[in-house]
Amino acid sequence: MTSVTGPFSSTRRMVFAGAAVLLLAVGLVALMVVRPSAASPSAKAARSAPAEGSADAGFARDMVIHHQQAVEMSFIVRDGTDDEDVRRLAYDIINTQANQRGMMLGWLEQWHLPKSSAKPPMAWMGHTVEPAGDGSLMPGMATDAELKALESAEGRAAEVLYLRLMTVHHRAGVDMARAGAEAAGTDVVRNLAKGMVSGQRSEIGLMTDMLEARGAKP
Description:
Layout: H1 7-34, H2 41-48, H3 55-78, H4 84-110, H5 144-152, H6 155-183, H7 187-213
Helix pairs in contact: 3-4, 3-6, 5-6, 6-7
């Protein structure tokens, strides 16, 4: 058999070599897609995610529940009074706490942790909380009877009851947020908790003034 030499042979060898390099490059890219580097952001996030029993997870779960009731009470009073100051406060609480609630649920999702736990509320704080069966799952939360009374109240009576219930709610929320800021292992939780302490303490002062303006005590 006669061998092929000359320009055509050289060109063919170059084509084969180029094809081999291309296939190798494609294979490496595919490998990186299938098996991300241990130094990739997703891999780092997976390694740094809080554990199931962490203060970060416990804080997020409990504060989600706490915030949900604050939002519920704010919707109730918004429909129970025409007072612009109270309605404005309720609107601010609805937006702020619904926003924060969404953030915390998002973190739990990102950490691949369940949204609820079999452990009692506030166990991450070292507290033993046994729900009394009245609807108040944690300190500061209103009972079913108090929520029913708020739903039935109108005008000034609704305003005063809401401001009193929310003041108690915020005080307990501040205690939980302060504990979260101290015990959490992630910056996102610590920063949010610190912001909650500042924001809710400010609203407690505002609600105290609003109660006094209505001739009522906290």
